Amino acid sequence: MLIGNLARLAGIGALAGTLAACVDVEMVIDVLDQDHGRGTMTMTVDKSTYDMMTAQGDDNDFCSEGEIIEAEATVQCVQVEEGSFSELLFSEDSDEPQPTVTSEGGGRVRVSFPTSTITEGMGADNDPQTQAMMAAMFEGNTLTLTVTGGPIVDTNMDLAPDGQSASLTVLFTDLFNGAVELPEFSYAVVQK
After folding, report:
1. Are the C-beta atoms of residues 113 and 145 closer than 8 Å to each other?
2. Which letter does DSSP use for residue 178 in this model?
């Protein structure tokens, strides 16, 4: 399931080994109504990295599900799923941390990402040399989590100027170096 892939971000170090390159990751949950949503996960790599993966036969690791969109300088893997929140959110591996979506009544829907778990697999067990190499590979690249779908009435994420979305953007280098403290959950409440 698409949004269950957030759990994979906790092990992004493994993704780095697979891609052997930098990557931007964006996950968006669009609340369509009190029971349904659209999840979009986009991973972006530069074109030369993708060409290298393709030459090595590793392109399936980059985008085993979803659509590949090639531009002049980048290649994206875009995976979109739409349906009830239960269809979007629950991974077959129940041990993985999961985003949660709950109706709070009065047309309010809370979307929570378990952000404290993202840092757990980010190199804490690696030696300093490996951590430095991983940080260098991801220099300037980001992880972005966004909630949209209506007015945001409560959040601990960054609220857009128009109040219609909230997001959290973190540099991967900060995650690898332990230079960022994330709350246990990053959340936004959408008014439908």
Report:
1. yes
2. T
Q: What is the pTM of this model?
A: 0.84
Q: DSSP states of 34-101 as a string?
A: SSEEEEEEEEEEEHHHHHHHHHHT-HHHH-SSSEEEE-SSEEEEEEEEEEEHHHHH--S-TTS---EE
How far is the C-alpha of 41 from the C-alpha of 6, rounded, in Å?
9
At 66-90, the pLDDT tens digits run 899 999 999 998 999 899 987 776 5
Mean pLDDT value across residues 17-23:
56
CA atoms of 65 and 22, how far apart (whole Å): 19
From the list 56, 148, 54, 154, the residue with the least C-alpha distance to 104 is 154
The continuous run of DSSP H or E covering 7 comes out as helix 6-9
Distance of CA 137 to the CA centre of its chain: 18
User: Does residue 18 carry a pLDDT above 50?
Assistant: no
d(CA 19, CA 8): 14
For 117, other C-beta atoms within 10 Å of its C-beta total 19
The answer to whether 33 and 83 are in contact (CB under 8 A) is: no
Report d(CA 148, CA 128) in Å as an integer: 38
Please state, in angstroms and rounded to a whole number, the distance separating the CA atoms of residues 46 and 76: 9
The domain ranges of the chain are 3-191
